[in-house]
Design brief:
alpha+beta, 2 domains, disordered C terminus
């Protein structure tokens, strides 16, 4: 009987609003339409999106990769990772999808001095008129002031824009944990359900799904960034239009997943899946999948082969 891989409920235990859904092991908005599971209930799937996937897929680093590879959200819009930044003096700047900057309109009053940030004469005059009315200026004073606003006061906008970015590494690792756990269940099915490490991972993910990590996310001990030897290779590899996920065993009989998203160091992880690799893999066996992104040019197979060290790659 089918059971949800997170809460463990079966059809008979669903309430009237719950049902089976399609769960994308790598989030769909990252270009994955092939690696999926069909044994995740609607309630768990929805909370995974809210409490696990959402931070990761909408973080600046991931949004910039989505923008680069033109990966659309569910609403059909390509995200703009550079939508708003600030200049050195703190002026907010918006950047459109064509990387054309514009100022965020604002008025700053310092005593009797008024400074207006606007994108056109008309916009500046409208803002000035409203501000002066609130200051109880007469119509003649307002007209006299706004008549002095013309094109000569505007400069071509070519700002140096700063983006202040914070990264909660624990939430990135939580996403890696979810991907690794789901991929293991895709490959090994129910045989993996009772694994002691799988149980620990499932409990940790259920804690996140319940919203208990909404304010503070604990670091999942099973997840980390990829080891140095893989990280060094990634640092020499430009972004590739693909994801690579694999499961292999170590000399210490550990079952490990490597999750390489966009072939970008910031989104490349390792997850410990089990301490009993010989229960799942034969000696030297590797399970792997490539997810090609639907962008022009496809995968750069030469770079992909150079990184993975394989003699050939599926084309």
């Amino acid at each position: 009987m089918r059971r949800c891989i997170f809460c463990g409920r079966t059809d008979n235990e669903f309430d009237g609003r719950n049902q089976w859904t399609v769960e994308h092991i790598i989030p769909e908005c990252l270009g994955n339409s092939t690696l999926i599971l069909r044994n995740v209930c609607k309630q768990c799937n929805s909370n995974l999106g809210t409490y696990v996937d959402n931070y990761f897929v909408n973080h600046h680093f991931i949004k910039s990769s989505r923008q680069f590879f033109q990966l659309r959200s569910q609403n059909g819009v390509i995200p703009n990772a550079f939508q708003e930044g600030v200049t050195e003096d703190g002026q907010r700047i918006r950047v459109d999808e064509n990387f054309v900057p514009s100022v965020v309109p604002s008025i700053i009053q310092d005593g009797n001095k008024i400074t207006i940030h606007a994108n056109s004469v008309e916009e500046a005059r409208t803002m000035a008129s409203k501000k002066l009315k609130r200051l109880h200026a007469t119509p003649e004073q307002i007209q006299n002031y706004i008549s002095k606003i013309d094109e000569s006061l505007f400069q071509e906008l070519q700002p140096e824009i700063r983006y202040d970015i914070t990264l909660d590494i624990n939430r990135f690792l939580l996403e890696a944990l979810k991907i690794g756990y789901e991929y293991a269940l895709l490959k090994f099915g129910d045989a993996y359900w009772d694994d002691p490490t799988a149980l620990k991972i499932r409990n940790r993910l259920n804690c996140a799904i319940s919203g208990k990590m909404q304010d503070t996310c604990e670091r999942p001990p099973e997840a980390s960034y990829v080891p140095d030897y893989l990280m060094q290779g990634l640092s020499r590899t430009p972004l590739i239009g693909a994801h690579w996920i694999s499961i292999t065993s170590t000399l210490h009989n550990q079952l490990v997943a490597h999750i390489i998203l966009f072939f970008n160091p910031v989104s490349s992880f390792q997850v410990l899946l089990s301490e009993q690799a010989d229960c799942y893999l034969e000696n030297g066996q590797i399970l792997e999948d490539f997810v090609e992104l639907p962008h022009k040019g496809g995968i750069d197979y030469d770079k992909l082969q150079e990184y993975t060290g394989r003699q050939s790659c599926p084309k």
